Structure to design on (308 residues):
C-alpha cells in the first residue's frame, strides 16, 4: 500500500491528505435539517448528516488528492450509528480510489494490540471465513507502550501489505511535556524516531517503508532533524492551516526529491466555507469551497518546495 500511496502522490502532484473529522457545527444547516426530518434529532440523525456531509466533500476532492484521513473519535461521539458511518466513509473513499488512513491512534499490548491491528488493517477469522473489520489502508499508532504495542501491527502490515503511522512529535502545544524530555541526552521524540526507522527496515516498500511517522507541522525544526533520522520513512504532517502550519514550514519534512511527506489538513478543508476567504461559496456550496481550499493548499506547498 505504501507503493500505491507514493504513486498517487506523484500522479496528483499533491502530497496532501484530507482529514475527514466531522463535527455537527461544520455540517451545513440544510444537510442537518434533511437528516433530522428523516431520523429525528437522534444519534441516527446526526450520523446521517455526517455521512451526507462527508460524501459531498469526497465527491468534490477525490480527484485532487491521494488520500483521506477519517478521525474515528469524531464518529464515535455519535455511538454505534457514528461508527457505522466511519465504516461507510472508509468504504466509499476506497471505492473512489482514495488511500484511507484511519486516524485511530491505537496503542496497547498483547492480544489487545493484535485485535486492534486485525480490526483496522487485517482480517478476523469467523469459523471458516475471514472478514475485514474497518478496512483502512493505514492506521495511526501510539508507541508509548513500546515494541509490544507495535509488533502486532507490523505483523499485519507484512501480511496485508498495509501500513501504520507512528506518533513521533505531535502538533499540539503541550506535546513537549513528554515528547521533548531528555533521555540520555536526547529528546524522547528523537529516540522514538530512531525506533520508527528501525521498525520500518522490517517492512520496506520500493522507496519508503510501510512504517510511517507523525510529525506536526508546528514543529519545523524538529521535523528537519527527524527527516535526517528517518530517510526512508513517509512523514504524515498534521497541523497545516487551522493549527498554524503553512507551506513555508513544511519544506524540511520532504526529501530532496520532493517526496517523503504527506500534509494533512482537516477543518481547513472540510469547513472551508466557514472561513472568510471562502465565504462566497456559502453553505449550499460547501463542497466547492473544500475543493478550492485543496487547490490553494496544493499551490502553497508547491511554491514552498520550489523556493527551498
Amino acid at each position: 500500500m505504501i507503493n500505491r500511496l507514493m504513486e498517487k502522490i506523484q500522479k496528483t502532484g499533491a502530497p496532501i491528505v484530507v482529514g475527514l473529522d466531522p463535527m455537527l457545527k461544520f455540517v451545513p444547516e440544510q444537510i442537518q435539517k434533511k437528516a433530522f426530518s428523516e431520523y429525528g434529532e437522534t444519534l441516527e440523525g446526526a450520523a446521517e448528516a455526517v455521512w451526507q456531509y462527508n460524501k459531498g466533500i469526497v465527491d468534490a476532492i477525490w480527484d485532487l488528492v491521494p488520500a483521506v484521513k477519517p478521525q474515528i473519535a469524531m464518529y464515535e461521539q455519535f455511538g454505534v450509528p457514528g461508527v457505522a458511518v466511519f465504516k461507510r466513509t472508509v468504504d466509499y473513499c476506497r471505492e473512489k480510489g482514495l488511500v484511507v488512513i484511519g486516524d485511530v491512534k491505537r496503542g496497547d499490548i498483547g492480544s489487545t494490540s493484535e485485535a486492534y491491528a486485525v480490526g483496522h488493517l487485517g482480517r478476523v477469522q469467523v469459523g471458516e471465513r475471514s472478514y475485514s473489520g474497518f478496512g483502512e489502508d493505514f492506521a495511526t499508532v501510539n508507541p508509548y507502550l513500546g515494541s509490544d504495542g507495535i509488533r502486532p501491527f507490523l505483523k499485519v502490515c507484512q501480511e496485508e501489505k498495509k501500513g501504520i503511522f507512528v506518533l513521533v512529535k505531535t502538533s499540539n502545544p503541550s506535546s513537549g511535556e513528554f515528547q521533548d524530555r531528555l533521555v540520555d541526552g536526547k529528546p524522547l521524540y528523537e529516540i522514538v524516531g530512531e525506533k520508527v526507522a528501525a521498525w520500518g527496515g522490517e517492512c520496506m516498500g520500493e522507496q519508503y517503508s510501510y512504517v510511517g511517522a507523525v510529525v506536526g507541522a508546528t514543529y519545523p525544526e524538529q521535523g528537519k532533524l527527524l527527516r535526517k533520522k528517518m530517510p526512508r520513512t513517509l512523514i504524515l504532517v498534521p497541523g497545516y492551516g487551522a493549527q498554524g502550519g503553512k507551506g513555508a514550514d513544511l519544506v524540511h519534512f520532504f526529501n530532496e526529491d520532493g517526496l517523503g511527506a504527506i500534509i494533512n489538513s482537516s477543518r481547513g478543508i472540510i469547513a472551508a466555507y466557514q472561513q472568510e476567504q471562502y465565504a462566497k461559496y456559502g453553505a449550499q456550496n460547501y463542497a466547492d469551497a473544500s475543493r478550492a481550499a485543496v487547490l490553494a493548499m496544493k499551490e502553497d506547498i508547491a511554491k514552498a518546495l520550489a523556493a527551498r
Summary: The longest helix spans residues 286-307. The mean pLDDT is 95.
